Amino acid sequence: MTVRIGMIGPGGMGKAHIERIHSVIAGGRVVAVTDVNADNAQAVADSVGGQAFASAAELINSPDVDAVMITSHGPAHEPDVLECIKAGKYVFCEKPLTPTAEAAARIMEAEMAGGKKLVTVGFMRRFDASYREMKKILDDGEVGEALMVHCAHRNPTVPDFYTWDMAINDTAIHEIDTMRWLLGEEFVSARVDKPKKTSLRFEHLQDPLVLILTSESGVRVDDEVFVNCQYGYDIQCELVAERGVVRLGDQELVHRADAQGRRNRLTMDHNQRFGQAFVTEVQEWLTAVAEDRHTGSSSWDGYAAAVVCDAGVKALTEDGEVAITMMDKPAFYA
Ligand code: NAD
Ligand code: ISE
Q: Do 251 and 326 belong to one domain?
C-alpha cells in the first residue's frame, strides 16, 4: 500500500521530509499540500504532481488523503491535529506538538475521546543510531544506574523570528524528550543558568544558557543551549553512570588528514546531523499507518515535553528551581 500523504506547511522541514519520502523512504507519497502561503502550496504541489488545497480542513478531510504530516510552525499545530483526530486520520506532527502543555492536554482529551491513538510527534532523536546505542547500553545495565547527563545543543545561528522562549520550547525540547526516553522517567524540577551572552547575535536572547533538569530518581541533566555558536550544528551528549561513561560519537561528516593537520568537518544543520534518523522515523510511521497502528512518540510525549518546557521557560525569567508537575499518565497511553 502506498500511503497518500497530505502535508500542511511545507517549509524547510516539510520539503526535507518530501525529498526523503520520494527518494529513500518506501510506502508513501505526498499527494496534497496546503500552506498559509498559497504560492508555496501551489509550487510544492506542482513539484510532486499533487493537489494544492486552500485550507488545512479541506486537505485533512479529502478522501484522497490517507494520513497527514504537519510541518507548519508550532503555534499552528493544535487546530490541525484536532481536525485530523476528528477525521480519524493518522497524523505525524513535527515537534513541538504544541507550544504549551494546556494545548497538548486538549489534544490528548480529543484523542482519548476518539478511542484511538492517531498522533505521532516528530521527536527524531529517538531514531538516531548513536542515541539508540546509548539507551541500549543503559537499559542492559552494563554501566549501572544513570547519575548525570551532560548535553550540548549548538546551532550555527537562528532566524530573526526566533524568540527568547524558543531556546527552551523549540530547541531544548529535543533534549527534554530524548532524556525522558533515555532515562525512562519524568523530570521534577528545572532551573536555567544564564552565563555571559555572546555578542555575535541577538540581544533579546539569553544565548547561551544552561537548562538543568532533575529527574524523579535524582538524575541531573544539564543542557547547554547555544543557538548562535557560529561554527556548526554540534550535538553532544555524555551519560555518566555508576560504572562507566557513554558519549555520543562526534557528528563529523569526514575525517581529513593533510598538510594542515588532522580535522573533521562538522554538520551544519539538523538535516545533515539527523538525516538517517528522519528517514527511520518517517519510514516506521508510514509502515505503521499502512498496518493501521500507532507508532513513535505519542500525544502524551508531546504533553510531557511541553510541561517541562513550560517550567524551563518560567525558569528563564526567574531565578532558582521551578517545580514540574504533570498529570498522571492516562492508561490510554501506557
Ligand atoms: P518554515 O518556516 O521553514 O516552514 C513552515 C511552513 O509552514 C511555511 O511554509 C509557512 O508558510 C507554513 N505555515 C505556517 N503557519 C501555517 C498554518 N497555520 N497553516 C499552513 N501552513 C502554515 O519552518 P520549519 O523550519 O520548516 O519548521 C516547521 C516545523 O518543523 C516547526 O514545528 C519546527 O519546530 C519543526 N522543525 C523540526 C526540526 C527537527 O529537528 N525535528 C528542525 C526544524 C524544524
Ligand atoms: C529547530 O526547530 C530544530 O528542531 C532543530 O533541530 C534545533 O536544533 C533548532 O534549535 C530548532 O530551532
A: yes
Residue 251 CB–ligand 2 contact under 6 Å: no
Query: Do 24 and 158 reside in the same domain of the chain?
Result: no
Q: What is the pLDDT of residues 222-235, one digit of tens each?
A: 999 999 999 999 99
CATH number for the domain spanning 112: value is 3.40.50.720
Residue 248 φ then ψ, to 5°? -60, 145
Domain identity same for 171 and 314: yes
Q: In this structure, are 15 and 61 located in the same domain? A: yes
pTM of this structure: 0.97
Give the residue carrying C-alpha cell 517541562: 308
Q: What single letter denotes the amino acid at residue 260?
A: Q
Q: Are 277 and 156 in contact (CB under 8 A)?
A: no
Mean pLDDT computed over every residue of the chain:
97
Domain of 39 in residue numbering reads as 3-125+276-298
Helix pair 299-317, 101-114: axis angle to 10 deg: 170
Q: What is the pLDDT of residues 154-191, one digit of tens each?
A: 999 999 999 999 999 999 999 999 999 999 999 999 99
Strand order in the sheet with 28-34: 51-52, 28-34, 3-8, 67-70, 91-94, 119-122
Name the closest ligand to CA 74.
Answer: 1
What nine digits make up the cell of 261? 593537520
How many A from CA of 172 to the centre of ligand 2?
A: 8
Entry field: residues in the chain: 334
What radius of gyration, in Å, describes the C-alpha atoms of the chain? 20
Q: How far is CA 331 from the centre of its chain?
A: 24
Task: Give nearest CA residue, ligand 2 atom 3.
Answer: 171
DSSP states along 24-40: T--SEEEEEEE-SSHHH
